[in-house]
Amino acid sequence: MSIETFFSSDKFNLFQTITPYKGSKKGLFIYRIIIFIILIYGYYCSIYVAIHHPPQRKTWMWFSFFTNQTYVAISIYFLLGLIYYYKDAKGNLKGRINNKFLHVLVHILYNVLLPLAFIVTTVFWSLILPFSDTSYYTATHWIGNVIQHFLQFVFLGIDWFLITIPTNYKHFIPMFVVGFAYLIFAQIYHVIYGIWIYGFLNPSFTKYWYLLYIGLVIGWTFIGFIFAGIQKFKNRNRKFIIDTDSNEYELA
Fold first, then answer.
1. What whole-number distance in Å separates Cα of residue 176 and Cα of residue 219?
2. CA distance 145 to 250
3. How many C-beta atoms surround the C-beta of residue 150 within 10 A?
4. I need a labelling partner for 213 at 20 to 30 A (CA). Which of 23, 35, 81, 170 fits?
5. Among candidates 66, 79, 77, 148, which has minimal Cα distance to 109?
6. Tens digit of pLDDT for each residue in 32-42?
7. What is residue 252's predicted lDDT score, i.e. its pLDDT?
């Protein structure tokens, strides 16, 4: 079994990423332009928030946070949608990426981003913000938090609903890899800078830190499994666009 078959990427093509279940390709394109502009403004807000950090933090941090890494990935997602539409309008879009590994990687991106955005939104509003000092917050702090920790999930969720991408339960594996890789990244970051990105990742936070780490990775994996099931449910009565019938759908 090839890696493409394993992740159902043999059923995935780039026309699926620009063809909405309802509406036109142009309508989806306009929606993505609007969202991309909002996301760009979100970068300004997030960097402002990073610079004007909590008083007890000695320095400002940005890309190290899982929120910001996910935000960059979501930005890439919407940018790819704009590029693929433009190439399709010019008649230059191919259904498959020549490099098989890259083709699978793009397919995985379209499958795991929504559960990652869900994790960011859920953890921030339930476990981080309620215990944070917000006394120094300005309007930009609040706007940045809303865009990065809520609207990104809403924007992506709408886009996810509109397009029909093949999936299977094996997409929980990339979610496991992402969770495990981030924990390793956090350790390396601590060794280099002497800073724990999140306080609860510090082994001194609890004597059962290893159980916390295991629980985080299992949680990441379980959410990936659940979202694969939700997507399969969403797709149950939909037709997958294939390369040969992509032109049946209105471009303008």
1. 9
2. 37
3. 15
4. 170
5. 77
6. 999 999 999 99
7. 37
The structural domain count of the chain equals 1
Q: What is the pLDDT of residue 243?
A: 65
The neighbouring-strand residues paired with 211 are none
Helix or strand holding residue 173 (H, E): helix 172-193
Please, which contacts does 137-145 make with residues 24 or more away whose CB atoms are closer than 8 Å? Answer: 138/52, 140/45, 140/48, 140/49, 140/52, 141/45, 141/48, 141/49, 141/52, 143/45, 144/42, 144/45, 144/46, 144/48, 144/49, 145/49
Residue 250 makes CB contacts below 8 A (sequence gap 6+) with 24, 25, 26
Query: In sequence order, what are the beta bridge partners of 20?
Result: 163
- What sign does the CA torsion over 224, 220, 175, 49 have? positive
- Give the pLDDT of residue 188: 94
- Identity at 241, one-letter amino acid code: I
Instruction: Specify the pLDDT at position 248.
Output: 47
d(CA 29, CA 14): 14
Q: Which amino acid is at 19?
A: T
φ, ψ for residue 20, nearest 5 deg? -80, 155
Residues of the chain whose pLDDT is less than 50? 245-246, 248-252
Domain that holds residue 62: 3-248
CB-CB contact of 230 with 181 (8 Å): no
pLDDT in tens, 237-250: 888 888 654 454 44
